[in-house]
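Subject: mismatched residue count in predicted assembly?

I count 446 residues in my input, but I want to confirm that the predicted structure covers every chain. Input:
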Amino acid sequence: MYSSRTNGPNRLVVVGLVVLALMIIALYYRGTGKNLIERSQRAVLTVVAPIQVTVNNVVRPFKRASQYTLAVGSATRDNGDLKRENLRLREQVKRFKRYEGENKRLRVLAGFRRESAFKTVAAHVISRSPTSWQSLITVDAGENQKLKADMPVVTEKGLVGRTVQVSQRAAVVQLLDDRRSGVGIEIVRTAATAIAEGEMDGSLRLRFMADDSDIKQGDKLITSGVGGLYPRGVPVGTVGKVKTSVYTIEKMIDIEPAVDFARLSEILIIVNTPAIGAK
Amino acid sequence: MNVNIRFAIVLLVGLACQAVIVPLIAIGPVKPDLVLIIVAVFGFLDGPAQGAVGGFLGGFLQDLLAARSIGLEALVKTLIGYFSGQVERTILGNSALMPMLAIGGVSVASQTLYAALASIVGEPVPLIRAMRIIILPSALYTAVIGLVVWTRLTRLLSAEREATVFK
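Triage response: the counts match. Full output below for your records.
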């Protein structure tokens, strides 16, 4: 029995497959076979997306029920906080109404474009990354809705990521907390810029902030627009723990993301940023 | 039904579950790898060549679905399928613990190999940190899920062979 499992033809098969896999890796990373691989990816996504939509439709009620149960527990606790918050916000609304009028007049004078000029496509999340090494989602909108790769993805709370692969009816989105993601950000309070990067454990870190830079917990972070992929001014999160280390000249800064990446169900894809128009 | 067709169906269902169900039971970045369990069981039952072919197909489909780092999972799962096929069925025996240990071990090997390959192709993974955050917890999770599905999966993937023997 043992010999039948280790004979020559078996080795030949595995060597052939290993060579084939190495060739695929080489083609993908050198970029020479990108068309062929992209076509295969789109074909797989086109076939699998309807299955994922069906499974997701079955699972969604259970998912919502579990989220609802969890939400009820925290709702009581939140209620008191919200009442206090409500009072504070009413005062703020009064103040902002005054600013709004002033802002409108200034915008007309300066000839600024309204921020709501972004055209978006709404989509549902139908699946998530199949491995622990990536943070990706698949959504039920694709080329049919004029989506392309490298389009920014947002929710009403802030930045989610960007599209990386688009088939006819589905698109894969690389989330901001993926370890290969990076976005240029601006600290609202100081207008200083830095880069927010995804980490292996699904958290976000702020990079390239010098040890003596002015940053503190709670600072709001928005996209800087540098690089042209993401529009300027989209909320990314707030500064969490700030640590210094003797081993590096950078500060180690955690970001509390504006968006809860684990609970995404609906997203918006911005289809008309300047970078997309230029392609 | 032919065992290869059965394997293909099990693999496709496993992939769909990996993409839709597994994220719901994920603990942070720690996810069980259902495709790995299917490939390993196929290898244990059918030998190295079939294990390698099954591993290549499962890994490549996983690569295409993930849309990034194409080829890495295909290479890793080909080797895992092959080496699972080298394990004698008698070693696994009738105890539930041995398959669980085997799947846990296979998972550690698979994730470590993936991390090493990702580093080689220019996506550096700090191995010690990855071991703590992803590799060992995922292996434990995969082993527990493996224990749950082992009996059903082996019955499903070996039914035809047993029927042939009894003819």
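Chain B has one domain: 3-166. Marking this ticket as 'not a bug'.
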